[in-house]
Design brief:
Pfam families: AMP-binding (PF00501), AMP-binding_C (PF13193), Condensation (PF00668), PP-binding (PF00550). Keywords: Phosphopantetheine, Phosphoprotein. Helix content is about 35%, strand content about 20%. Strand 16 and strand 17 form a beta hairpin. Helix 39 packs across helix 47.
Amino acid sequence: MSPEQQSKPAIEDVLALSPLQAGLFSLSEMAGDGLDVYSMQFVVEISGPLDAAVLRRSIAAVLTRHPNLRVSLWDQGVPHPVQIVPTQVTVPWREVRTHPDDFDALALAERSQRFDLRRGPAMRVVLAALPEGRHRLLLTAHHILMDGWAIALFFRELLAIYGAGGSADGLAPVKPYRNYIAWLAEQDTAAALDTWTSYLDGVSPLLIGAPGTPATEPVRHRRTLDAAETSRVLGWARRAGLTPAAVTQYAWSVVLGRLADRTDVVFGTTISGRPQSLPGAGEMVGLFINTVPVRVDLRAQPTVLEACTALQRSSARMRDLGFLGLADIARAAGTPNLFDTLFVYENAPIGSATEPVTAPDGTRFLPLAMESLSHYPLTVVAYELDGELIVMSESVAESLGPIDPAQAVERVLAVLRALPDAADAPADTLDALLDHEREWAARPSRGTPLPAGTTAIGLFCEQARTSPASVALVADDGTWTYDQLHRWSLAVAGDLRSAGVRRGDVVAVAPRRSGRTVAGVLGAMLAGAAYVPIDVSMPVARIENLLDQSRADVVLTDPEFVDLFAGRTVVTDWDGGDRHGGESVEVSPADAAYLIFTSGSTGEPKGVIGTQGALASYARDHRDRVLSVGRRRLDRALRVAHAWTFSFDASWQPLAALLDGHEVHLFSDEQTRDATRLVAALAERRIDMIDTTPSMFGQLSAAGLVSGEPGRPTLTVLALGGEAIGPALWDQLGSLPRTAVFNCYGPTETTVEAMVARVSESPVPTIAGPTDRMSARVLDSRLRPVPDGVIGELYLTGDQVTRGYQGRPGQTAAAFVADPIRSGERMYRTGDLVRRNAVGDIVFVGRGDDQVKIRGYRIEVGEVEAGLRAVPGVREAAVVVVDRPIGAALVGFVSGATNGAGLDAAVVRGELAQKLPSHMIPTRIVVLPVLPVNRNGKLDSVLLGESARAALAGGGETGRPLDEVEERVAAAVEGVLGTRPGPDDDFFDLGMDSIVAMALVTALRAGGDEIAARDVMAFPTVRDLADAVRRGERLARIAAEREYGEVPALPVVEWMYEGGRWRRFTQTVLFRLPDGCTDAEVVQVLQAVLDAHDMLRSTRESGVLVTREPGAVDAASRFWVIDGEPGQQLGTLITIAARQANEAVDPDRGDMVAAVRVVPSGGGDVLLLAIHHLAVDAVSWQILFGDMAQAGAAVAAGAPPALPAEYTDYRAWSRRMLARSGTEVVAAQRDYWRSQVRADDPVIGSRRPEIGRDTWSELTSAPVLTDVAVTAEILDRIDQRIGMREFLLTALTATFASWRAERDQDPSTGALIALEGHGREDATVGDDIDTGRTLGWFTTVFPVRLAAGTTVTVDALEADSGEGRRLLERVTAELEAVPNRGLDYGLLRYAERDADLVEGVEPQVEFNYLGRFDLGVAGEDPGAWQPVVDLELNEHLPTDPEPDLPLRYALDVVAVVRATDDGPQLVTNWRYCSTVLSPADIARLSTLWSRSLSALSSAEPPKPLE
């Protein structure tokens, strides 16, 4: 019988996965059917009398010796994937004939064929017969089986067995791989993780490539350091006590730091992973290597040598802890991805496996190659071979983007060459630039200097003399030749001089848009003054601000606008005509030409002072670069459209044509704001050129501009500026047959445009290079030139740099900095991020101040916009950042070449996800016909911002219909959170926490969808959760099989019983009743709720809780009405009703519920529902909220109010919970809990509370309202790890440290606080548990001691923002360390009566965060059957429902986020024992609390988490 016919083999062993095996399995799964780069190959050239059958048996014998090479992986029904070892396998083997030239194709085909890791073995062999009796053995195996070291061992054994005729009998016994797996299980992973966490503390992820698995094989680039240089570098290293690995790794660190503009870098490296403490590890065949992070702080050491030494030491230390999985290390560091580059130093490429071996039969085996790839965008490998140091890159082209991997290798070599000479110098002296980059950085400006004294107004006067009869200006109010316009402008200058204007003054030009505007601009310059344009449609306050800042005392305007300029000299009679104004005032290039106001970061506009020389230099470049193209084509002057607002410096793009003899056509406001009218006017006037923005061009193009249709304008020259151009629009512009298109870039501070690109000269969008007499510098954060392809900030220097900001010396000094190349010259810091591409052109990326933090990652909005523009079919794109209390969100807007037709938001998102990581994908993507523009022709950011907010509120990606299940999920989320999610929105981003998740489960089940709370947490998007609903099986626990009876007391119930006097211990909530609702309908709703929840029907019999069947309690017997008297306040009625309801509750009589309808005389009835705490907790109320609304809606519709049953009832939960008592998992927590209550806790008030002495009647409340702005900052800082509870407890810790320090107590004892948890840890108690609809008292109360051993006061937080970050991280870590979220403390304290816990220190403070009550109700009154969230109304509910209940705490701090008209607001209720603490004490504590919150909200942010 052949091997293929044998029966299925038995299982010999089951092994866990090593860390890297687990990672490789995950990567293989993520790759799906795509390329799996971890298929490795080993090629052996064979000559001589090969016996193929013996060779095949020899390979089988190797697999027999090494069981781990036979494995299949399995991940179904097990907590973690495992390796299943069968007793035998057959290695796929085939023999082929081929030619050497075709062998590479054969190898590629084999490598491209994926392994199914669930069906081993992950290995196959091809024996290729070549001409002349030669053979090649091609072994393809998945890396999950072996590493390079193991390959050498495999080959050695294979040849030994072959030499023995296929017998392995003569070989030594193997050292099994399972010994290594066992060794891994014995390691102290917790301690190792702590060390890794400390090692990586504060480091940010370093990702330079795009996400995803490779679609094509990585490409390699290899460079060599010659023997002499290698000897010099490595000789220096040896003398310095450094290994080759350390120096090459450091060189890569320097290069990576320059590529990422980081001084604190992190990358991956592979370690051998063969522990010296494991006997025989060096002889084991298997996968031992592991990938671990390397962190290098390039500024931590004073010299290069010390930095190399420090790196070598830290690498050695962390190498010993390299047995952890990379995912575990990254998770401990707070991020899923730490790095996406890998550096490897190989002591030998293949090791001993490279040596030829001759078998006894004369067959010669010569290893040729070993192919092993990586999935990282960039891997750098270094090794020494034949006395030369070789550095090789392996890169994924589609992931790495503009960074050249071959150049990366060159940079590593350049740094290596520099190391010996720079050993004693600071690390900053090392330069990763290549020669051509240094040359570019030092390149002088191009263009001929202008003649001395050249001014813009002088160029106009010269043009008027050269072509006096030529038409200069055409507007609705007239046409003027150059001579006429010149004479008119001179007359205006005379009027201004008569009005007192002198050289250096500023004149306000404020007529309606007309020829008068141009004459006013030129007239002001001829008078020796600068002009400031004033748009009379602006608000009066804005106009006054501009006039005050510019110190403009004289105004040129129209008669109807005189009242706007009261108190200033106003000139209105300055129409054109045959007037003579005399001579112009001589000005110099340094004189101011204009003041153009731009938006300021403080909200107040700032005026940029443009000079005559700068404007003249721009105008001459514009003539030579742009206007000359049209003049040459047409052999005449151009008709140039002026459609810019004069308030924008781009107004000089068309005005510059007046300095070169062209004909400027000024279009009216009405025309410039209507694309259709403007296109018609352009055609009517036969315009040759227009300057506009890409956004405005999109509208003009849609209206027929450059369409080629009869009657439509055909431009000779088109200049675009003010915004970035996307790839689709760039391609369209480049293909225009009769139009020369220019992309113009330039901030106002560098005079109109300082960089210009001819679109047809580049296949990709670019701003090319600087204008004549200007230079561009692309610098990193430390003002060093950046390498090619790396993002840096653009600095501009040269003749077009303006003077600065009017009256703002500080801002001028910050923005206009010293040029490091040209001594004595200034550069303007644009704030724009760019990169230089391979041909030397500058590519615009985005604004440097458009950075936003999403899920802990700081991203550039411009990079997201560029990614959107790169999506096929997208012509224009914009991304808007929307600040929300739950964190910033991105909204993307796109339009296509055909007005958005054919674009699908979901498809755009999918394409973008192939280019950018998940945190850079916009929350919403909206498809528009065209993007809106403002009056300046730029993108209308205000309108886009409003649209973005509407998109977030209105739900999801447009054009992406939801299926039926997804629609139900989205509606449920909207009902719970108040925000409609898109298909891929993360619910955590919308404000979900574990309590809200349970409410969402309730909402989904109400719609008939069965889901568990843990599934909501695991699948927090509409699409994923809908899939979980479809996949999930309906829960089998239904009410028909339920048993009723005694309920054992949980620890929290025992805690209550311990103090006694708890009969009226209720929780009370107000509900808004619908208008016209009858008492009978209220009772019907209440009955449905009572019948749906066991604990509402429970009673106490002989001191034991007992549940009863549905129907056991008549809702009518628990309901009554209170009618208000005329003038009686609703709040007064609520207090009366609450006292009555509390008195009517008695568990011993089975009266768990009391319901009172409160009817004020003015209408607006409310229902007061009081329930004993035995039957409800905070989560229970979330369930009840949904039930009341659902039942109320059913009754209103005339339908029976059927509610879903509970699944795991409270009785079953209590039994399962108490069954944990005495188990090992609970006992193991004993020492932890003892440590929390062992140390002293200095008294907070005058004494400690005492049972039997202090009662709830002495409880007093003092609400503290946190400012809405501070609340917003707090909410902006929280995420899935550092949530609101962690933040507030950190503030409370600092508050008590300060309180104790002020009272001369020891603040270092930490804050001992009693915390409440919701207690519904379903997955911990059992896989079959689901309490998503169960009512009862699940709450856990447990002590935590926070920040013990340290003292961080409020003063310290305010003095050092880093203290806040460190304290927040510490408190968060301590809360994360609480075992099982405090679930089992009560079992040890009450069920097992642990003496140390019973006698331990009792917390004096309890803290409870109730959650966010602003979601879904902000700005709205509650609907029918919804809880009343009005804080003032709820304050009429008694704080002491059971006045005689013992008071266990001196202070009970309860926090909640409520909705206000101004936004979410944190409200903290300080409930205190008035016999222990005084109002003055609480006032002081409240002050410290508020200061703590404020200081923490502005503290240094915690390390990124995602």
